[in-house]
Write a structure and sequence with these properties.
There is one protein chain. The chain is an alpha/beta fold and 268 residues long. Helices cover 41% and strands 16% of the residues. It has ten helices and eight strands.
Length: 268
């Protein structure tokens, strides 16, 4: 539970997406509908499943993430942007709803009740991140951006919302909105988001990988475990204030990893 305070609307809560709000990879989850629509082959779909397993076993280290990102950007070159958006919109509930953590939606609702702006920061793309963020009640999202020319992805990544860049995004949003980062909160599962967690006054780790768990215990940060999916009705409203960075399929299939399903708890 969040500490009770007067709702001032002068702070933000920054959420990672994969394994923090949802129990898996938002990007790789769409491999099946992309395959059904002819965007990827059976072999590519199997490779994406292998990539998911690789991330589960090895963690989200920078080298693995970069390798996966480069391979997937090559796969997505030439995809039609509108087609990708259409597939995501049509399959969003089918694919994502079973993955959303009830604990995450409750926490997001608490932040909104306190007057906080809820911001999702993800290495996946806008075509996936923005509708999921709206579904769970977030105000806006910042994600990876891939270059598109004449409505098709070129294979070039224009903006990668990963690692230290998430902290930079939080700094930009705080400056634009007039927030003090000391008053803001951040939630993530991955050691690669350590810069974001360090940037705010109230960091919390959720379903952490081993490296982040060690760091959280060392620093005395709260450790939460989210485990229970919840059935949602989509809250596809227009964000009150847009901080969404448009992105392409490189972000769509960029990385994520499955969480361990355990009961919620908090560790000092």
């Amino acid at each position: 539970m969040l500490p009770v305070r007067q709702a001032t609307g002068r702070a933000a809560a920054f959420f990672d997406l994969d394994k923090t709000i949802i129990a898996g990879s938002s990007a790789l989850a769409f491999s099946r509908p992309f395959r059904r629509q002819g965007l990827i082959s059976r072999r590519a779909a199997l490779r994406s499943g292998y990539a998911q397993l690789l991330l589960v076993l090895s963690g989200a280290d920078a080298g693995t993430m970069d390798l996966l990102r480069r391979r997937i950007t090559a796969l997505c070159t030439g995809w039609d942007v509108a087609h990708v958006r259409s597939i995501v919109a049509e399959t969003l509930l089918e694919i994502v709803q079973p993955m959303v953590y009830a604990e995450a939606t409750e926490l997001i609702a608490e932040h909104r009740a306190n007057g906080d702006e809820v911001v999702v920061l993800s290495a996946s793309g806008e075509e996936v991140v923005q509708p999921i963020a709206a579904m769970v009640g977030a105000d806006c999202a910042v994600a990876t951006r891939m270059t598109a020319v004449d409505g098709r992805y070129t294979g070039e990544v224009e903006y990668y919302c990963y690692g230290a860049e998430k902290a930079e995004a939080a700094h930009r949003i705080a400056a634009e909105r007039g927030y003090r980062l000391e008053d803001c909160r951040a939630y993530s599962d991955s050691i690669t988001d350590l810069p974001l967690l360090e940037a705010v006054g109230h960091p919390t780790v959720v379903n952490p990988d081993r490296a982040l768990r060690r760091e959280a215990i060392r620093r005395g940060w709260p450790v939460l475990t989210f485990a229970h999916p919840v059935a949602l009705r989509p809250k596809l409203r227009s964000p009150a204030r847009t901080a969404v960075a448009a992105v392409g399929a490189a972000g769509l299939l960029a990385a994520g990893w499955y969480g361990h399903r355990r009961t919620s708890r908090s560790v000092g």
